[in-house]
Design goal:
- This protein folds into 2 domains: about 5-85, Orthogonal Bundle (DNA polymerase, domain 1), CATH 1.10.150; about 110-285, Intergrase catalytic core (hpI Integrase, Chain A).
- Helix content is about 55%, strand content about 5%.
- It has helices spanning about 5-20, 20-40, 50-60, 65-85, 110-120, 125-140, 145-150, 180-195, 215-230, 235-250, 255-260, 270-275, 280-290; strands spanning about 155-160, 165, 175.
- Strands 1-2-3 form a 3-stranded antiparallel beta sheet.
- About 30% of the residues are buried.
Length: about 300
């Protein structure tokens, strides 16, 4: 095992003890491997400030600002760990300026596309009932991340009080309520689920049509397939989360409540999500006021 792989393995072991999400660990490894390829033949723990600045400058020529910022954060976290583990004396990231992120709001999915999506799975078969329930839950305030959605267990559901418990990043747990239509859709799904061959074998709420628990990749595929059947552009599950955040803000929901519902730990997150349709909301507010009509 070469020296870079040795340190990467140790770093990944550290994150396993912290129960960091696999996707986050994968992001760290990709960035650090890219850095190793950028300075071949040199251990990444021996690289200095200039090496890292040149790496980030090179990344900025081919990546979006948000991607460069993510690489910066990944490097900062790794070298802080190296410093804490006394692998290095001082992090070379200490005096590197944090790159700016050019904010590009995520387009909000129009209502007619959501209607078409729900119409595409309006049948009564197992897949129709499951997909309708999932899509509706994705549109609720607190919209689950994909990993949270597929991680829902039967005992996470409270059909009496209409809420579901989600297991999020870093073992964070939150509960989100759902409306009458979502509750009805889940109830209909539960009835067809009871006839599934794995109904009594698995505790996972969402099951695959052919058997087993629905996976993250399966959730992406079902939404992609439903978009294709509906004849609409592909909708990423994260866009439904943005839609849910927009609907919350549009209804006058507070940022503090949004943080609790959506599982955000930073006050920047509700503002970032809210920017997706901020202009649209501002225009509607201006029409309600119609301030020039007073003259």
């Amino acid at each position: 095992m070469d020296v870079n792989e040795l340190h990467l393995a140790s770093y990944e072991r550290y994150h396993r003890t912290k129960r960091t999400s696999p996707d986050t660990v994968k992001s760290y490894r990709i960035t650090l491997q890219q850095l190793a390829d950028f300075r071949p033949g040199r251990p990444i723990v021996d690289l200095g400030r200039e090496d890292l600045e040149e790496f980030l400058i090179a990344a900025a020529t081919v990546n979006a600002s948000a991607t460069v910022h993510k690489k910066f954060r990944n490097l900062r976290a790794f070298y802080r760990w190296c410093e804490a583990e006394e692998i290095i004396d001082k992090s070379p990231m200490t005096r590197i300026a944090e790159p700016n992120v050019t904010s590009k709001p995520v387009p909000i999915v129009p209502d007619d596309q959501i209607a078409a999506l729900l119409k595409a799975c309006s049948g009564k078969e197992f897949g129709d009932r499951r997909d309708t329930a999932m899509i509706r839950l994705w549109c609720e305030a607190g919209s689950p991340r994909v990993s949270e959605m597929v991680g829902i267990r039967l005992d996470d559901l409270d059909m009496r009080h209409d809420h579901v418990t989600l297991h999020g990043k870093g073992d964070k747990i939150r509960t989100i309520p759902f409306g009458a239509k979502t509750g009805q859709a889940i109830d209909r799904y539960l009835r067809v689920r009871a006839r599934h061959k794995d109904a009594n074998k698995l505790s996972s709420l969402w099951l695959g049509q052919l058997g087993g628990a629905l996976t993250t990749s399966g959730a992406y595929r079902l939404l992609e397939r439903r978009c294709r059947e509906a004849g609409i552009p592909r909708i990423h599950p994260h866009k439904l989360r943005h839609l849910a955040a927009h609907l919350w803000a549009d209804a006058g929901g507070s940022e503090g409540d949004a943080m609790a519902l959506f599982g955000w730990s930073s006050a920047e997150m509700p503002r970032r999500y809210g920017r997706s349709a901020q202009v649209e909301r501002a225009h509607r507010a201006a029409r309600r006021v119609s301030q020039a009509d007073r003259f």
